[in-house]
Amino acid sequence: MIRLVAIFVCLSLCAAGNAPAGGLPDAPGGIGPADVFVLAGREGTEASLEARDMVRLIAAGYDAGEVLESLRIMHPLDGAVFPADLAPPLVSWVDGHPRADMWLVSIRLADSRAVYALCRERSFVPSEEIWRMVRAATRERQAVITVHGVDSGTFQVVSQDCVSVSTSRDRVGALIMYRQLPPVFSFAEKRLDLVGGRLGDPASPDPPKVLFQGVPACVGCHSFSRDGRVLGMDFDNAGDKGGYVLSGVRRDMGLGKDDLISWNGFPRIDDRQTTGLYARVSPDGRRVVATVNEIMLLIKTDDPFASQLFYPLRGILAVYDRKDATFTPLAGADDPGLTQTCPEFSPDGLRVVFARTGANMERVRELGGKTVFALPDASLDELNAAYPVRFDICRAPLGKGRNVRAEPLPGASDNGMSNYNPRFSPDGKWIVFTKSRLGLVLQPDSRLCIVPAAGGVPREMACNLGNMNSWHGFSPNGRWLLFVSKETGADSRVWITHVDGRGRDTPPVLLHRLGEPGLAVNVPEFVPRAAGVMERITFPGQ
Predict the structure, then answer these.
(1) Staple partner for 208: which of 165, 191, 198, 231, CB 3.0–4.6 Å?
(2) 4-167 has which fold?
């Protein structure tokens, strides 16, 4: 993807006034005898002299007044904060200047050192050695990254853009498990061989592990216990849409009957199968909560940016207890006259927050019981208008008897918007939820909001990008939030933002190693490193 022509590390202590912020030295004299020059793939004195001469030519002709604004850095974003243990990140840009055919990336550090990379492609990933130096020098200090578009015929800088970044003292300290699949849902259904599960490490430059691939069934939505030793995951087992993996984590997970349960063990109210929609494992790994007795509306389109409208038209919450092997309705979230979904346990396991709306039984009757459609040419805006729904975040205690009423969460309910996918911070202080004008998932206008766990004034997060922000979750240490966005295209990708003790977050960082071209990423979850023992998951029938 990246062809690096030349890198050199400027080790001299240049005066800050020798160059514009993030720019180049304004004359060859700004490059001193202690500078080190490296040509990628070549070593020795000849390569060093060639790199030095190229940079001197560019620096000698640099004139900030002549530079046009045709270049835009796409990543990192201005103000982004990198994790202390992040592997070398991606620097990428677009440039519309017709003469720009070579690019010089400069990373100017607070201690007056700089890193420069001369590239022929519109992206750059620093080596691990260089990134360790940059990461240490930017620990809670800003660095300026500038990309200069260069006319290689004249060595003149013709375009440029710059951003400021820094590195946090906080580590991620966790892995990320996610599913990847074709972005168009109807196509993914036909090409299950392209659907797979991956386990990636933000701290490693290595590609993610392939946990499973091509399972001949719908599989992949997952969650873990707090210690990472219990995995729960949807699995349509032998035609049972309520099949669910509930298993201890181990190296080679060849799943058998002892690793599986079925949400159809919960009493049905009609002849429809239940799926255990949006199931979540409790922090201690003993329980799982999910939507059951649901009727789902699913309308499929061919738009890769929004290929389905999906939400339950009815449903209650049920809890499965591993110790007793029992299913029970969750009091306060078991009203058959309402739709209750998207549950989440509190960190102490004593409460559940969830999304709720009035059951759409009139719509069910209108649809004649058929709730799966294919409308290839329909837009999501048209579908939202035809099938409007808005959810509120509510909360209910766990195991407090039958006379329990769920309470709407102030700040995440009754706001004229649809609120869903609540996620607790590990310390229990905050809830991050998704908000959109209508709908439940895959809404292009969805935004992440944070609110005190007891309710209060919500705040839209700084990490929000332009197209879809959802499928989010906190790292085990509570300092990082991951989420999925289609900001870079229909092939949705995972981003990560720093969250401090006051709930304030930063512009996000793209985890560019998670995902493959042509495939979307969804349902990512932070996984404690204990789950890193997993090498392979094999399902019955494989």
Answers:
(1) 198
(2) Immunoglobulin-like (2.60.40)
